[in-house]
């Protein structure tokens, strides 16, 4: 059976856990060969590799620190080289930086911007030469860029808000090449760093219209749609997957 992304090649940054892992596995289930980067656990990365291979697709795990622009660029080149091409780039890697303003060092702010913004720019810049018409660039933002309901989110909200402008500008620039650029904006999502049964979960649920956290697979489903051929006329868009958090 032919699937929506049959024989496409995708690279997912930060793909060893949480939303990134769900995206990597979903793209594979839709027919893509998938490379992904990871920084921490080799065991987690190996698990995602096996889940991708279980769909019948090729998998490549690339150790790379998104704070290092050389490592980011090298990961893109290795993904395209190992899998033969590149059709979809998902910029998912991020640091969830939460700290009061008075306690935030400039070095911490710069790290958040390096991983959450600069790495997106660098990976996109490196990926575009490998993409033909129909290429897809999809970045993962955050609902707190629109609604920061807790203190201490200045670094994170600033970095994620920057992706809105980056997405729009890239969409305009790459449109003539038929490469689309979109931003998926999750709300509260059940991950290791923000579990649906965590101490603040009940309060966070109250900020959403649906009264619950998303499953990572729900975010991955939207990313997968934007990677499909039928999404070819969507670019420069910010797509919320936030359970009504910002309405």
Structural overview:
With about 250 residues, the chain is of the alpha/beta class. The protein has one domain: NAD(P)-binding Rossmann-like Domain (Rossmann fold). About 40% of the residues lie in helices and about 15% in strands. It is built from seven helices and seven strands. It has helices at about 20-30, 40-55, 70-85, 105-125, 155-175, 200-205, 215-225; strands spanning about 10, 35-40, 60-65, 90, 135-140, 180-185, 240. Strands 3-2-1-4-5-6-7 form a seven-stranded parallel β-sheet, sandwiched between helices. Helix 2 links the parallel strand 2 (about 35-40) and strand 3. It is globular, with a radius of gyration of 17 Å. The model has no long low-confidence stretch (mean pLDDT about 95).
Q: Total helix count?
A: 7
In percent terms, what proportion of residues is strand? 5-15%
Instruction: Characterize the overall form.
Output: globular
| CATH class value | Alpha Beta
Gap from first CA to last CA = 40 Å
Helix content: 40-55%
Total domain modules? 1
What is the CA-based Rg, rounded? 17 Å
Q: From the 3D coordinates, which CATH architecture would you assign?
A: 3-Layer(aba) Sandwich
Q: What's the CATH topology name?
A: Rossmann fold
Walk across the major sheet and give the strand order: 3-2-1-4-5-6-7
Low-confidence stretches: none
Number of strands: 7
Report the structural category. alpha/beta
Draw up the topology in text.
Layout: E1 9-12, H1 18-29, E2 33-38, H2 42-53, E3 59-63, H3 69-83, E4 88-91, H4 106-127, E5 136-140, H5 154-174, E6 180-186, H6 201-207, H7 216-227, E7 238-241
Parallel strand pairs: 1-2, 1-4, 2-3, 4-5, 5-6, 6-7
Helix pairs in contact: 1-2, 1-7, 3-4, 4-5
Family: Belongs to the short-chain dehydrogenases/reductases (SDR) family.
Organism: Virgisporangium ochraceum
GO molecular function, one term: oxidoreductase activity
């Amino acid at each position: 059976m032919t699937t929506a992304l049959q024989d496409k090649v995708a690279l997912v940054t930060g793909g060893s856990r949480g939303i990134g892992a769900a995206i990597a596995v979903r793209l594979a289930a839709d027919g893509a060969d998938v490379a992904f980067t990871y920084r921490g656990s080799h065991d987690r990365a190996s698990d995602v590799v096996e889940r991708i291979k279980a769909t019948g697709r090729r998998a490549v795990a690339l150790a790379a620190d998104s704070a290092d622009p050389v490592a980011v660029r090298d990961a893109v080149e290795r993904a395209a080289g190992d899998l033969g091409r590149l059709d979809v780039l998902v910029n998912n890697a991020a640091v969830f930086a939460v700290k009061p303003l008075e306690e935030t060092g400039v070095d911490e702010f710069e790290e958040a911007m390096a991983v959450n913004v600069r790495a997106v720019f660098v990976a996109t810049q490196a990926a575009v030469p490998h993409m033909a018409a129909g290429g897809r660039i999809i970045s993962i933002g955050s609902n707190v860029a629109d609604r920061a309901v807790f203190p201490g989110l200045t670094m994170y909200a600033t970095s994620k808000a920057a992706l809105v402008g980056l997405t729009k500008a890239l969409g305009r620039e790459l449109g003539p090449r038929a490469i689309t650029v979109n931003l998926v904006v999750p709300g509260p999502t059940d991950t290791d760093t923000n579990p649906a049964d965590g101490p603040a979960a009940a309060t966070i649920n109250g900020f959403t219209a649906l009264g619950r956290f998303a499953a990572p697979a729900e975010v991955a489903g939207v990313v997968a749609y934007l990677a499909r051929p039928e999404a070819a006329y969507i670019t420069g868009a910010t797509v919320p997957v936030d359970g009504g958090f910002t309405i």
